[in-house]
Write a structure and sequence with these properties.
Growth Hormone, Chain: A, 20 helices, 0% strand, mainly alpha
Length: 458
């Protein structure tokens, strides 16, 4: 069975577009909640199981390693069977993994938590390939980055809800040395996945295929996808940038609670978890502000500015003591906000028939979160504050990618400050060229006129 030829966003009525956009956006809440809980569990398990900061990063290794392993299979599956079936598979794995947190908590097996996290993440990687790609192509490429930032803003809402729940239920009273509340929270997470899966069974989700997108591109003369996939350099280097960025972001978040406690200014783990939820709120606010900016400013240019800011403030976090360091940490979360969705949309732009394959590759870049935290954790066991030098390297790699695209765009068609829709521009140029007579047409008409005049004289 192969996915149908499909449609493009331009074929949808306004009502169908709003319905499809809203339903797929709801998926972003699911992995935002799981991710928000993950970073808090890191610190909680250090206390429960008596493990080091480095050992606690096995959770990150399982969570983000699953993206590295499973994303390619998810993209192949959806390329063959479509987005909707991919979403069902993703939500199913998400629910199964969450259910297995129950026996892991009951028998207090850290290895069980690591395994369950891997299964959850296999589901989330499938959902990310589907949802990120679908939102990106569900409308004009001009506003793809803004649309994806808006949808991922709801991931941010869930991300700070996780730490807020944890600060109330994981670290206070007897819960500080117990896993009882963990099993109940993840049972609710599993229920959320099941409810969403049932809702998607009854929805008519329009299928947008690579063939339909390729046809739209070829009609205006864009033939990027004529080259083999390994020559889609914007996508290939986008994967590198995404790997580096996500690794840096995960490293920053993984040790945020430890960082604030280790500043020695009287912050408890419960208070630090609450402050971490405020960091996520800052991140979410930054993402919605980014939606407004990306409606006007070229995404590659804005990513360059934000990348430079991330690089600077990650170093400030590493070398600023006390309250100043925590203030720099909040600022860093703000400038991280737009990076993931913008890298995704830049890397998958105008891929045509390779759209789903490219989406799988960019999402596979989330696997960077598997190896940055262990690298940072080995330093954090000695000095948590100085370990924030490690994320700096990821932000620099991301910034180089953004600068490279800005330079390429400038060489190709001039410097861009405003965001543009290349397909719409080319379509307008074709219409204009058809309505404006060429020199050859003018010469032909002149010759015909001269012949007509000669005939009259004769």
């Amino acid at each position: 069975m192969v996915a149908s030829q499909g449609i493009t966003a331009g074929d949808l009525s306004r009502g169908r577009w709003i319905f499809a956009f809203s339903l797929v956006t709801s998926l972003f809440f699911t992995w935002g909640f799981a991710y928000g809980l993950l970073d808090v569990l890191n610190a909680h398990f250090q206390q429960i199981f008596g493990i080091s900061k480095l050992q606690s990063t096995l959770l990150q290794l399982a969570y983000f390693g699953a993206y590295l392993v499973f994303s390619p299979f998810a993209s192949i599956f959806m390329n063959r069977y479509g987005y909707k079936k991919g979403i069902h598979i993703g939500l199913g794995l998400y629910s199964i993994g969450a259910i297995f947190f129950w026996p892991s908590a009951k028998f207090q097996k850290y290895g069980g938590f690591v395994g369950s996290t891997f299964v959850i993440s296999c589901g989330l990687s499938t959902l990310e390939v589907a949802a990120n790609s679908y939102i990106s192509v569900l409308g004009s490429p001009k506003y793809a980055a803004a649309r994806l930032n808006f949808s991922q803003g709801f991931q941010g809402v869930a991300s700070f809800a996780g730490p807020m729940i944890a600060s109330r239920w994981f670290f206070l009273g007897k819960n500080a040395t117990s896993l009882d509340t963990v099993q109940w929270v993840y049972l609710a997470v599993s229920g959320l996945g099941i409810v969403l899966n049932v809702l998607f069974c009854f929805c008519d989700l329009p299928e947008i295929t690579g063939d339909a997108l390729a046809k739209e591109m070829h009609e205006v003369g864009l033939t990027n996808d004529d080259q083999p996939f390994w020559k889609q350099y914007r996508c290939i280097f986008g994967w590198v940038a995404q790997t580096a960025y996500v690794g840096a972001q995960v490293g920053v978040a993984s040790f945020a609670v430890n960082y604030m406690v280790d500043q020695n200014i009287g912050i408890s783990k419960s208070h630090a978890s609450q402050l971490f939820s405020y960091c996520q709120i800052t991140f979410t606010v930054g993402r919605f502000i980014g939606v407004g900016l990306l409606n006007f400013i070229d995404p590659a240019l804005l990513l360059t500015i934000y990348g430079i800011a991330c690089s600077a403030f990650s170093m400030a976090v590493a070398f600023s003591p006390g309250v100043a360091g925590i203030g720099c940490l909040f600022t860093l979360f703000f400038f991280e906000s737009i990076c993931y969705p913008v890298i995704f949309t830049l890397g998958t732009k105008n891929l045509g028939k390779y759209t789903k394959r490219g989406s799988g590759l960019i999402v596979m870049g989330v696997g960077g979160g598997a190896w940055y935290p262990p690298a940072q954790g080995s330093l954090a066991d000695r000095n948590t504050r100085l370990s924030y030098v490690v994320p700096f390297t990821g932000y620099v790699a991301m910034t180089i990618y953004a600068i490279g695209i800005v330079i390429h765009q400038t060489i190709k068609g001039g410097f861009r400050f405003r965001t543009v829709d290349e397909i719409e521009q080319l379509r307008d140029q074709i219409v204009e060229s058809k309505s404006t007579p060429s020199d050859e047409d003018i010469d032909e008409k002149k010759r015909a006129s001269d012949v007509f005049i000669e005939n009259i004289r004769a």
